[in-house]
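WARN no homologs supplied; continuing
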Amino acid sequence: MKGKNYTKEFKEALLQEVNECNNVAQVARRHELSVKTIYSWRKQSQHKSWQTTKSTAKKINTYTPTAQEFKELESENGQLKELLGKKTLKSLF
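OK structure emitted
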């Protein structure tokens, strides 16, 4: 199971908070995160790529199909369900 994705700004703010209070466990509890996650973010932030990557590149994008694509997907889904049903019936007899 894949976990949540957080923006670079959120991670940086959290790491700043850790640096200020010097208590990773406390910050993790406050934000309902794993201590291991924060340590991982800290290690990643020390990497050169962390500073050079634009924050917009770390945002999550979602794909929304067009109306035509959605109709095609529904049609294909119906065909696949029908094929699966036929195959299931054949295996029963």
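Residues 63-93 form one domain.
OK
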